[in-house]
Amino acid sequence: MDKDKHKEKEHSDENVEKSHSAFKQPSKDNLEKDKEIPKSLEEKLKESEDKLLRSLAEIENQRRRFEKEIKDAFEFGSFNFAKESLAILDNLHRAKLAIKNDEVLKKNQDLDKFLENINIIEKDLINIFERNRIKKIDTLDKKFDPNLHQAMSEIEDGNKETGTILQEIQSGYMIGERLLRPALVAVAKKKEEKKEENKGKKEDN
Question: 157 and 92, same structural domain?
């Protein structure tokens, strides 16, 4: 009888111990394993975020390159067209000079009206150029700028500073911030001082 009671007590103690073990604190290994799961997930999210940002940056770079290529192609086409169109303006200017200097045409009563019509066409063409960002380069009395002007000749002038533009041979133009055609000009230079002859020089016999 006592043996049976003793066995029942031992069995009861074992059940209590098992019950307590079920509520024990998790081990260090289990905690580390639990931490590894969210850490691994966080790393994957970080990698995905980095890949997404790199992809977005690449897409943005491609968009900018594409826009630049379109802009360059448009400006290149406009540049060539504008440069060739300057010949029309040059021809109108030459025609006016030729008509004014023609002795026969000077006697024509309709000369002034004819020149007036040419002036109207010339002004209209200049207005079209200006609306498309094509502007004439200033020259007269300006300081020579190799980025805008091309010197064709030099003129001695004691009143002007060396390098000052005195004449415009052919007009130059800009399209936006880009040089379309340099202005052909004549610039001032200092007069060469004549060397005085030596007073003590002997005269030839």
Answer: no
